[in-house]
Amino acid sequence: MDKAAPRRGQGGGVSVARRRTLWALALQVAALAVLGWALLGGSWLDVRGQPRTMVLVDRSQSMQRDEVDQAVAAVARAARVGGSGNLQLIEFAGRVASSPAPGGAATHGLEPTATDIEAALQSALVTHAQTPLSSVVLVSDGHENAGDAQRALLAAREARLPVRWLALGRPAPPAHINEVLAPDRARIGQRVQLVVAVTRARVKQGDVQAADQTDPRLRVRATARAAGGQTQTAFGEVGTTGRALLELEARASGAMVVDVALEEAASGQTMHRMNDAAVVDIAPPAALLYVQGSSGQLAPSLLRGGWQMNVIAASRLDAQTDALDGLQAVVLDDVAISDASPRFWSTLITAVKDHGLGLMVLGGERAFARGGYRGSTLESVLPVLSEPAALDQPAAIVFAVDKSGSMGQGSGGVDRFQLAQRAVLETARGLSERDALGLLVFDAVPRVLIPLGPAAAGTAALARDWQTSPNGGTQLAPALDLAIGELERSTAPRRMLVLVTDGFVDAAPLSELRARLARARIETIALAVGPDADVDALQRVINADTGLVLRVDQAADLPGVMRSGVERRRARVERGLVVVQQVQPLPFAPATMQDWPALAGHAVTRPRAGATVVVQTQRGEPVIALHRVGRGRVVAVTSGFGTWTPRWPAWRGWPPLAGGLASWTSGARLNGAGAVVNRVAGGLQVEAEVPTVSGSPVAQAVSIAVDTPTISGRLLDVEHFAAGRVRATLSDAGPGLYTFVVSTPQGVQRQLHLVRQPDEGGTWGTSPALVQWRDAGLITAWEPDFQTRPRGVEGQRVDRWLLAVSLALFLCGVVLDRTRLGSAQIAQVLRTLRGRLAPTPGAG
């Protein structure tokens, strides 16, 4: 018995060791299982290892909100079934919602009128770079009108971020506008035809309602908006071929923008609308606007030569302010600055510089310095400068001012006589020390207030009280007789009479006074103040060649009109037989002409720096000068083609000169197909053929400019990419009208292009690009049983807690297998470790 006891004890020890070894082995097997789970992508407490999916939700107007909400709910359910509810939801449209909250949607900052898928994917890529995502689910129809989705998808593939696409498409309406065809150009008065193609939704074969369904009658409504704001509407019924033909009237020059809408003919209900569907460039009925300030020989010559011109009087210039767009050239024949408003001159100069409008200015008694050009907006583009007052020709000037009772303060509170005093004083201050000045006032009887003498002393006297007041009637003849007598005693090279009156010229010997003014070589400026002034009688007294009658409707304008009138009359005009000669070749055939006829007069000017003087006098003064300003061509003829060129119409060189100047000024159209504008990635690209000279393209002087919705006259970089062809690119072209102008030495070509506002309401179905992206491997279709994190994704993080558990189990197995402690001792060790690992109360 005693010997058997140790063997039982020994056998019991073997049994305990075997059990310890089995437990150690079990712990090590469990450690391997946990490690395998972690390596296969399992997660427990480490949030870094949990699958994270970002859902990008398209909230643009082309998406139906109820369907989108259902799709997002389906994605959330599938994520929960797949073992993860860790979804981050971000909404987008024209831009990504600002400040997206993790796990939720942010709606601030959305632009439902556009879709920018690239911006949404870029937001996901930024998040992925900070904390890796397992995948992206994109809920959208794929129709984009901002950004470049394919570029972002390529970036996602580079970042190894899978993109799953849940495609939703809005059903197409029963009918919609498919295409709008319109001509690029038309002329005022023409009928502009539009062809609108309409697509009807197809009814499935076998549909119960197919047999009974009849398509409703449809019509297209087109609304045209002209540059000046005028609108017109036209209707056209959709035929069996699915097309509607409409006609609009080209009423005003410039861009005519057309909006179209598809309606049910019976109810008028709109089924589809397309704004900014087309643009037509409306040109004036004639290429040339000829403005006559006086009769000349150029207009009838051009008409006989077959030129299509719109000939108007200078007094009608303001009515043409909004009609310059589309013209090739404007001819100003003896036109004064006062014939039009500042707005017209500003518009004209802009058209010349920025739009390539040609300009020809012809001299005469009312042009250049005499027309008030000096320092004007018009002179800024002329190849010649109007000469200032000729200091080598002193002038004796007598001011004759009406002081009758009507010149006093009227019922409207306007004191005409006081304004006349101010006008005389301001005009006198512009005289030189070599000039002479005198003043007389008159009613029924004239009286000299300042005898004719040095201008400096006279100006000082004018600044003092005139010692007179308005009263009495008006007698013009005695006043003119006294003024003429004063001037006849002067020896100055030039004699001038400045007359101010608001009354009638009664019983005056008009012919006798006119003859006496002519004999004394007195230049007269008559200012007819107010609506009652006898302008016709004044014009009968004053010779048009040596005098000027100016109507002053508003008395407040009297000082400015008098000052400019005196400056204009003092402008130098060379009269008599003036011999001219050609010193430079003409820019058209024949380049050189012989036997140029002499002139009877011309306005004395000097050439602007850089201008070309083709014909000049023997003293070197310009007669025909030209240059280019911006994109326009400008010609100045200081003699005009009227009374100062009596021999020119019979000259054999007249026909080629008249037609050549008109042709060169207007500019020939570019050869080839002209300019073409295409939409490219990120902007617009214009291509044009350039003309050739002697077989070689003219490449050195080609410029392309564009008027955008925000900037006028923006120059683009020109690229000569092929023989005889150029192109330029405009980046970041937003919605609106763009006007491209291609300029070469041979002419100017204009092309309009309309960028439509993004129309989210006009898209349906899914984008065909989705199929291309799927075939290229950029996206995969979302399925309800999708895995929130695909296995084996390179670079994914292993759950640190699972690794720790695996290591702990393995170490426990090793310790259990190696130790000889009993169960009571092991329990004591575990209690000790737990007591040491337990946190002390109050420990942070």
What's the end-to-end separation, in Å? 63 Å
Largest sheet: 8 strands, mixed
The structural class is alpha/beta
Strand runs, count: 41
Q: What general outline do the C-alpha atoms trace?
A: elongated
Lateral arrangement of strands in the main beta sheet: 14-13-15-16-30-29-28-25
- Overall pLDDT metric: 81
Assembly annotation: single chain
Helical content stands at 25-40%
Strand share of the residues?
25-35%
Helix run count:
16
The Rg value, from CA coordinates, equals 46 Å
Regions with pLDDT < 50 over 5+ consecutive residues?
A: 1-9, 99-103, 203-213, 669-673, 694-699, 787-795
Describe what you observe in this structure.
The protein is α/β, with parallel strands linked by helices and 844 residues long. 26% of the residues lie in helices and 30% in strands. The chain is built from 16 helices and 41 strands. The protein has an 8-stranded mixed beta sheet. The chain has a 6-stranded mixed beta sheet with strand order 20-19-18-21-22-23, sandwiched between helices. A 5-stranded parallel beta sheet has the order 2-1-3-4-41, with helices on both faces. Strand 1, helix 2 and strand 2 form a beta-alpha-beta unit. Helix 7 packs antiparallel against helix 8 (455-462). The two termini are 63 Å apart. Mean pLDDT is 81; it is low at 1-9, 99-103, 203-213, 669-673, 694-699 and 787-795.
Key terms:
single chain; 844 residues; alpha/beta; eight-stranded mixed β-sheet; 26% helix; 30% strand; disordered N terminus
In short:
This protein has 844 residues and is α/β, with parallel strands linked by helices.
